């Protein structure tokens, strides 16, 4: 009997492998790569158009020596401005800042890291370098040959192809039908690259970047996205970061293992915010199960920056295996994310009065807990008990208190 069961289950596995066509299999493999929100680093926020082969190599070295890799930051992603010209056959080559992309990918891989790159569905990227329009399969094949593991695909000049605006009269609103047609055209462009990536049979995580146009969270997964930007670009200031972060309320049903809402990259360590404000970004992004892509100079991090980016207890909230995006649970900025094993992560932000420390009270019933609750403060790294059904804490200006609550 036992033998039979074993035999049938083996036949089932073999049949499944034989019957499933290679593309869904490749899809499933990529979803596995993004089973928790992707973590890594991207060149844009710090290096911008100054990124070079040397700075990527130095970053890869620093990802290891600083402990970032071991904290979970695996991807080293080059953003815009690596692109050179196409050859006679239409194949893309990097520009002179990147003499040998394959060798660079090999170097990044040799450090136990993964390698990411950037392009656009339009003819030109946002910085007016060569995009993938009309060369999707060729580019996907080239990326696979180089050893690329992650592609950020940024709308940029495709906006004019999809005709979301009347270019002659940008002030004139386009009709609803025209808008719907434009969004459908954009979806097709993303699907096209998704299929091209699948055809390479190399698992390449697909990152949609089109600033949330057409409620991308509703169709991003169908178009093959493992993550999709939900907003316009983040800047290294509290106003931009907090507006983007807190505006994610309501998007939680659309995220889950393999497909994540992306409120843009981290600015932690870039100098435009206070340590408390950067703790707010780290905590909020973790509660949101957002991709954690550092955007600072990894080779030059202060002890404070390191302590924020590599707070393993906060990272564990982001990377929790349930993959549930947290939500806002009280009129003030109190957010909660359910964790595996029945625990809850709660972040209490001082957003309303961000110029002075204020006491904020969390009611345990708001997070579905009652009675005696065990609490761990994830920034103070301290345990305590909550006995009375509520917890009042003074939260610093622009800052956060983040707890892990369990029975
Ligand atoms: C923007 C994108 C940024 C960065 C930049 C590069 O459209 O949102 O994250 O990639 O292009 O040109």
Can you walk me through this structure?
The protein has an eight-stranded parallel sheet. It has 407 residues and is of the alpha/beta class. It contains 14 helices and 18 strands. Bound molecules: beta-D-galactopyranose. Beta-D-galactopyranose is lined by residues 44, 79-80, 125-127, 154, 209, 233.
DSSP E strands, number: 18
Which strand order do you get reading across the main beta sheet? 9-8-7-6-5-2-1-10
Rg measurement, Å: 22 Å
Bound molecules: beta-D-galactopyranose
Strand content: 15-25%
What share of residues is helical?
25-40%
Uncertain residue segments: 1-20
Largest sheet: 8 strands, parallel
Outline type: globular
Quaternary structure state of the chains depicted? single chain
Whole-Å distance between the termini? 43 Å
Q: Provide the residue-averaged pLDDT.
A: 93
Given the structure, what is the number of helices? 14
Q: Structural class of the secondary elements?
A: alpha/beta
List the helices and strands and how they pair.
Layout: H1 2-19, H2 22-33, E1 39-42, H3 44-47, H4 53-65, H5 68-71, E2 75-77, E3 83-86, E4 92-94, H6 101-110, E5 114-119, H7 136-146, E6 150-154, H8 158-162, H9 176-199, E7 205-209, H10 216-219, E8 227-229, H11 238-246, E9 260-262, H12 275-287, E10 292-294, H13 303-309, H14 312-318, E11 327-330, E12 334-338, E13 344-349, E14 358-363, E15 373-377, E16 382-386, E17 390-395, E18 400-406
Parallel strand pairs: 1-2, 1-10, 2-5, 5-6, 6-7, 7-8, 8-9
Antiparallel strand pairs: 3-4, 11-12, 12-13, 13-18, 14-17, 15-16, 15-18
Bound molecules: beta-D-galactopyranose.
Beta-D-galactopyranose is lined by residues 44, 79-80, 125-127, 154, 209, 233.
